[in-house]
Amino acid sequence: MDIRQLTTFHKVATLLSFTRAATELRYAQSSVTAQIKSLETSLGVELFERLAGKIQLTPAGQRFLPYAEQMLTLAGEARGIASGDGEPSGLLTIGTMESITSYRMPPVLELFHHRYPQLQLVLRPSLCAETLHSLRQGTFDMGFLMEAETRHPGVESEMLGPEPLVVVAAPDHPLAKEAKVDLDQLRDVQVLAPEAGCAYRELFEAELNDGSGEPVPFLEFGNIESIKRGLTAGLGISLLPTMTVADDIAAGSLAALAWEVPFEVYTQLAWRRGCRQTREMRLFIDRTLECMASEYSATTGSAD
């Protein structure tokens, strides 16, 4: 196998399309197909399944992907060392959650796209527990966390800032008209929540299920946008990061309930403890802190 084959494999695995991979890599599609076939031959396994006009990674392809990413990262680092202080390059694999990707990452991604075009950022959707595991295993270079805890075994982290939370509902929900809302009132209504494993969901669940009665059932949604659609349809209430609903509250499509959240979570950027930080990793940490510092300062100021 060679670096060109690994780059092609990674692009196809990311896009799940030979055609789009060929376009982005500026290869003929036949060249992309030939490189993947050659890589599969050298490994002795099939990396992609081709079904009904679509492709997906085989189990072997899924196992191989993180190793391909690590080899591409090392190749980029080696080029940087060999060329002295050349352009940052290579690949960084970053675990992140939907709320961070959609509401905090765009300025960071824009900066890296324009200023460091040779450095490829690969974002992997991941809940906090999965991100921590992948960091310890070395399959993620870095990852974003949104947790109450700021110290994690086997992991180092930089805290970006506290992430304010708010309980929201449709403007015509009965609790939206209350001057003050208590836990008993929250227990009596349907709660919409992201999937299990989300730190703020688990903290909210613990508050509602404090042993005072039957556990409060949660109506589980796949992502924040679907939760917001459920809220506007009048299906219930939800606890969400303020950043994800600020525009909706300002537009009047959602209302913040008068319940003071009794716990805090903090957004953090983490990496495996003991790993040698590459120039590209340090660059990503520093630029992310710079990009997000003003956002968190503004959020914290508005929450005080």
Description:
By secondary structure, this protein is of the alpha/beta class. It has three domains: 1-64, Arc Repressor Mutant, subunit A (Orthogonal Bundle); 87-160 and 265-304, D-Maltodextrin-Binding Protein, domain 2 (3-Layer(aba) Sandwich), CATH 3.40.190.10; 165-256, Periplasmic binding protein-like II (D-Maltodextrin-Binding Protein, domain 2), CATH 3.40.190. The protein is 48% helix and 20% strand. It contains twelve helices and twelve strands. It has helices at 3-15, 18-25, 29-43, 59-82, 98-103, 106-115, 128-137, 183-187, 199-208, 224-232, 242-251, 279-303; strands at 48-51, 54-57, 90-96, 119-125, 142-147, 155-162, 165-169, 191-193, 218-220, 238-241, 255-256, 266-272. The strands form four sheets. A five-stranded mixed beta sheet has the order 4-3-5-12-6, sandwiched between helices. Strand 1 (48-51) and strand 2 (54-57) form a beta hairpin. The longest helix is centred in the last third of the chain and has 25 residues, at 279-303. The radius of gyration is 22 Å and the shape is elongated. It starts with a helix and ends with a helix. The model has no long low-confidence stretch (mean pLDDT 88).
